[in-house]
Amino acid sequence: MLNQRPVFLKLGGSLITDKSQPRTVRREILARLSHEIAGVRETTPGLKLVLGHGSGSFGHMTASLYRTRDGVAGERAWSGFTEVWQVARELNTVVMSALYQAGVPAIAFPPSAAAIANNGKVFAWETRPLQLALDAGLLPVIYGDVVFDRVRGGTIISTEELFAHLASTLSPQRILLAGSEPGVWLDYPLCTHLAEVITPEDLPELSSSLKGSANTDVTGGMLAKVELAVNLVQTLPELEVIIFSGLEAGLLGRALSTDPPGTHIRRPSIDRSSHLD
Fold first, then answer.
1. What string of pLDDT tens digits covers the 277 residues of the chain?
2. β-pair partners for 178
3. Which of 101, 157, 165, 221 is the most exposed place for a label (fewest CB within 10 A)?
4. Would you say 36 and 253 are in contact if contact means Cβ atoms under 8 Å apart?
5. Domain residue ranges in the chain
6. How far apart, in whole angstroms, are the C-alpha atoms of residue 212 and residue 188?
7. What is the pTM of this model?
């Protein structure tokens, strides 16, 4: 059983949406995942969980059109900024509705309303209300969103980047990234060799083989996720980041309570010399 430090869980955009079709939710998958979250909360009293979700075929396609991640200047770009905000909010509304239908007491914290970036990185974020929600036994929900930026005017901050910022104050025991793939493929797009464990020492070797998303992903795809995870486990030695598939029923619940299959990103243990399997 996991201890009482919080767990961060992301439902990836490729998992809850069809990234090849604009603004298309995989509603049956989202409903199942919501009920799995409800089940784990019921059987694990005291579990502190922060939920995040990606934008998938909602935010990424619109953001790519306006290049919002790179910065915002001019009337058309600011109009695009609000369009990205709108579609991100649209998907979040669907996610919140699915959680409500599953009986989960969830409350959303849109980053656009409380965070400020500095050249593409979170600079300031008022997170005390989120922490109070967590302490009250509620499920705080965040998501990749537009934010105002002191250098770029505006930008997009991914869920993983938001998790990284929260980790410095909430010290999660695990960050769980549930996607449509079973982990990190070492030979993408052939997808025949899965990394079971990745440590910071492995990253230089992996960087040349890891690729981005198969569909539009303005926040960097798998390589960006792995790099950010490696940086986090170097900063927080007790942290483990796990990338796994949310497509198989039951794996989400297993990830929240025990050790799921997938790719585990962590600091090396004393008795291990090699981690790529």
1. 445 789 999 999 999 999 888 899 999 999 999 999 999 999 998 899 999 999 988 987 788 899 999 999 999 999 999 999 999 999 999 999 999 999 999 999 999 999 999 999 999 999 999 999 999 999 999 999 999 999 999 999 999 999 999 999 999 999 999 999 999 988 877 888 999 999 999 888 887 667 555 554 554 578 888 999 999 999 998 999 999 999 999 999 889 888 788 999 999 863 333 333 3
2. 11, 244
3. 101
4. yes
5. 7-265
6. 9
7. 0.90
